[in-house]
Amino acid sequence: MGSESEERRSAEEEVILGVDGGTTSTVCVCLPLLPFSDNRQLPDPIPVLGRAAAGCSNHNSVGETAARETLEQVINEALSRAGKNLSAVLAICLGVSGVNHPSDQERVLNWIRNIFPRNVKIYVQNDAVVALASGTMGRLHGCVLIAGTGCIAYGFTEDGKEARSAGAGPVLGDWGSGYGIASRALTAVMKAHDGRGPATMLTNCILQSLGLSSPDEIIGWTYADSSWARIAALVPVVVSCAESGDQIADEILSNAVQELALSVKAVVQRLHLAGEDEKGTFPVVMVGGVLEANKRWDIGNEVINLILKAYPGACPIRPKIQLGGQPLPTNHKEPSPYMFGQKLYTLSLKREKKREMSHPIHEANEKSPYGNLTKEAFYKKHNILHQESSFTNAQNLNIFTQSWQPNDPSCPITAFLGMIHGYTSESGWLFELNAVAAAKSGLFVCALDLQGHGLSDGPRDHITDIQPLLDDCLRFFAAARARHPPDLPAFLYGESLGGALALLACLRQGAAPWRGLILSGAMLEVSRKFKPVWPLEKLLPAAAYVAPAWRIAITAPPGRRSYREGWKRELAAGSPSRRTCGRPTAATAQQLLSVCECIKRECGGLEVAMLILHGGEDVICDPEGARRLYEAAASKDKTIKIYDGAWHQLIGESNEFVEEVFYTVLTWIKVRADLANIN
């Protein structure tokens, strides 16, 4: 008992430090350890135990001694305000401007090693790296643009390649930075004063801002203290003059926009983030005071417009963070080094206990998706509000429905997700776990049992017409969306037959109602191994007409080749609401093949954003159908991932694989929902 109490007390005292070291200011936050291996979302807002701020820590700007002293100051002050000492620190992550080379990284590491005990884990990165992680749920993929006192563009590919542009300081051409904008404005004032340039409103406005009476005094003011942040503080004056119609100020800002966009383009081109056709999707995280002017002359939005013109698949993200319940400006990213460092720390511990994942699949066993918990306890643990309902459709059938959302009124819903299950499943159990994973990320999720499936009425395994099923989906999703704001971004997710229905919904409704479409193992082409045995395939139309309810023989039972892991096959088969036996009727088989042909004919008109996921060894729905859809669809925002070796049901693979797939899905939704909210 005593040792358990000591361990509990020790865990409560452990902290992690995050340092955001910029050219303008340096902030350190002290927060409790919230391991990523713990099966819960990080609290929102994250509890801040202590916070301290100081000046510049970029050694290129203020020198090594001043930079080191600034870092030591904010670290000690943050710990003091948290009531902690150095022995309580498990790890510290520093995102520091000016760390541009391994030698810079080693320099800062040596500074920090001299402060902490030997067992403390220390991570040092350029501030751009942790800024990128702040907008991509901790993953290093995509591009980040920072424009504050200085500026830098930095990018990573999924396989770890990286590239940077700008960030070398004002002497070497960072003209999109706050310093670059302000220094050009000061130059314009001096040119106007000398008669070497046109008159500009900047002269009087800058003099008034600095409390000077003549442009001649600007010379002394500039060289008395040429720190970058002091010069960059004049950016708001330049923006104000541009908004008032000053042509010189407008040209300065326009040039800065061009420079910033070029920095992003350089990174994208070097890493091929947009793909060969330059239309692929990738996140662009944007942080820094220059990009968040919140004025009529909005530099950030102008940069976004230029990026999107070159790369229509780019997904701009502006992270928004709260600390201690107090909202911070959107350019504030100070928790991100903590978040990034915490993740690095957790992954580096290599504890014996298996890492728990955010997807609830790891709690399931062969008997229950809820593991050893009751259904009620499961939802309480995950803090998800789960509701069940039903409606009567046009055929007078009772259609069962479910919904999931965060059970926290203070947590805003970021997007709507309608989910459609496949032919051999229903909206419960394994499919339900996917819905819970999505709801945990802040989505409102809803699904229905298709006719003849799960708890809905209708003949089992017998689909004589696909249209009533599609009508049920559209009616249900429309009613569910009507309970939310009309501008809430909406997405469709479909598995197997549900993927085909989701596609048909977009073909019928067009792209307008839906922000994006996610297809997992979609039924776009029935595999040869799943088609009726020869010669029945050729006689199927006649068989469907003469004996529509006759259950046909197929080459391989679908259940055995849907889920790779045996315990998941057992779990799927044991669902109490499962009604499908897997062998379709002749009419059903004819309908499924007809749907595939319809999609093949009409998919060229699809303009909705699409994420296509498919197992490379799917012997039920041929992955060639997924590839054909990707090539044919007119969408300018489309991504395809064929997972080598994976079977039909992606959730039937290893739990680690499921986690990776749903990270892809939820990140894809997040970046498009953020873009919709920006626009």
TrEMBL record:
EC number: 2.7.1.59
MF (Gene Ontology): hydrolase activity; N-acetylglucosamine kinase activity
Gene3D superfamilies (UniProt xref): 3.30.420.40, alpha/beta hydrolase
Domain Serine aminopeptidase S33: 417-654
Coiled-coil region list: none
ATPase BadF/BadG/BcrA/BcrD type domain span: 17-314
Domain of life: Eukaryota
PANTHER family: N-ACETYL-D-GLUCOSAMINE KINASE
Entry's family note: Belongs to the eukaryotic-type N-acetylglucosamine kinase family.
Name of this protein: N-acetyl-D-glucosamine kinase
Organism: Salvia splendens (Scarlet sage)
